Amino acid sequence: MRAGWFAVLLAGALALALVFLTLPIAAIFLEAGPGELWSSLGEPQALDALKLSLTTSAIALALIVVVGTPAAYLLATRSFRGRELLVTLVELPLVVPPAVAGIALLAAFGPEGLLGAAVADAGLQLVFTTAGVVVALTFVASPFYLRAAQAAFEAVDPSWVGAARTLGASESRAFVTVVVPAALPGLATGAALAWGRALGEFGATLVFAGSFQGVTQTAPLAIVELFGSDFDAALALSAVLVAVSAALLVAVKLVAARAGTGLAGRGAGDARG
Amino acid sequence: MLEAELGTGLRDFRLELSLAVEAGWPLAIVGPSGAGKSSVLRAIAGLAAPERGSIRCSGRVWLDTAGGANLPPERRRCGYVFQDYALFESMSVRGNVAYGLGRLPRRERGAEAERMLDRFGIRALADARPAELSGGERQRVALARALASRPTALLLDEPLAALDAVTRTAAGAQLRRIIDEAAVPTVLVTHDFAEAITLVEKVAVLEEGRIVQRGRPEELAAEPVSGFVAELTGSVVLAGVARMRPDGLSEVLVEGGGVLTSTDEAPGGPVCAAVHPWEIAIEPAGSAEHGSQRNRLEATVRSVARIGNRVRVGLDTPQPLVAEVTPQAREQLGLAPGVAVTAVWKAAATRLTPR
After folding, report:
1. Which of A78, A267, B7, B26 matches a 20 to 30 Å C-alpha distance to B136?
2. Residue A52: which domain range?
3. A48 in a domain, yes or no?
4. Which of A184, A265, A270 is closest, CB to CB, to B129?
5. What's the half-sphere exposure (Cβ side, CA atoms, 13 Å) at B89?
6. Is the alpha carbon torsion for A191, A194, A197, A202 positive or negative?
7. Is residue A229 assigned to a domain?
8. Domain count of the fold of chain A
9. Spatial distance between the Cα atoms of A34 and A39, rounded to a whole number of angstroms
10. Kind and range of the H or E element at A31?
11. What is the pTM of this model?
């Protein structure tokens, strides 16, 4: 019996994609030996960059989740005039090139920018500071969370909220006890996507906050700078960044799978009913 | 006592109705899907705000648009059983039942939840997730959850629709007992008149946002005010034009051909002639005339289906008919699709309503 040419085509396409996507990543680890990796990590520049990346991206993620969760819930559950426009505006940073995002942030919050005076009056210094890094990361990463959170909230059966309300729960209690647990897998996915985007952020940070070691030089910025002088160090830092990102991805998949077991069994329950 | 008077715009028509429901006399609102049934329940529960109206329950004002009063759903506390039950999938059965026990001191909630689990026979399922339950079990959890919070009124949206035919009969009997025990004003909505009959003694028929007839189920079946109500109660409805005959009977020219007589008085003009399927007998085609007060329509058998101890026969006349006959009649007449027959029923069994 002849194997169908279509099946061969599908398998071939997948094999090609797999090799192309995983080979470069694998190469990082193959090129950088464990010994070199460890010693390069001892270098202050790499260590500073890694610490800065983790702290700024964590702060940015916290801001995104705290503000983005209620904002996404509103977009998902209320219909009002101009809602579609609002959704599009919120998604805009997704398609804006990172360097343009940096310029835009300068135009808005830079010393000469639209709100420059107000930012200075508030005693804030954003340009070339760690706070500026957080602003840049928040700007580029927010849409990833907002989109995922909105989709997750839209998928929650509105009658659940109705049921909770008739059972004596206020709107906010229904949100916390019923809606958020149901949307959790989607929210976690969105948070991971946003975090991943923040960890990898390069262009906007460089333009808006610069690249000063220990202050605004995040891991991706350090990798590019090291690349000119010390390829091994760049390789080692890249390997760490890959490991952190991969760990993030796996953690999210596990959380989503665990939270999803209750929902995955739903079809079986319906079949019995 | 639950009294509601509502007016609000829905997508295609306005909902305008008033109703009063006493504890012990549950009301079924019956109508096709899209008639606005669920909107009525949502307005009563406070989940949707009607444009105008007033709702009062046990002396408390829930809504009074003129006076500016509008209690949120958590302060009305209706026991609401949603059509798909709306169980919280992220909680266990026990968690669902205990959700509405916020009015109790914290240490009493556990015992009360257990009591409700026992009462509804779902103790063994207490730690299961809703996704693991059968349809009948989900319905019992939904009822236990709604009643655990000691609601002031009970609202049921198509409470049996999600169940299969086997479960439905038992669940219906149980639901009726539960409604009686709850002893609070109860409104249920359903598209199925037969289901309403098994659950309540008061029915209101909702058509495009308005109640077109209220009464006991048998009153509606016997004297429908319109072809719509007749069809809803399970009658076969034929459209035609009526005129009075000198002998006091009404004569209906059926659209597409055929003449019927009815003992009902008709004003003349377009009417619906309604007859219950079990009033229609089937005779061989072209059989002799028995009398002028019998209606006879030539027909071709379209379908034959046995339901329990009856046989439901679909008939093609100019307008489709359904007759219910005994299995013996099916044998004798050799009823099968394509066979030519005559459908026969009494003029006295023919209800006329203006169209």
Report:
1. B26
2. 44-263
3. yes
4. A265
5. 24
6. negative
7. yes
8. 1
9. 9
10. helix A5-31
11. 0.78
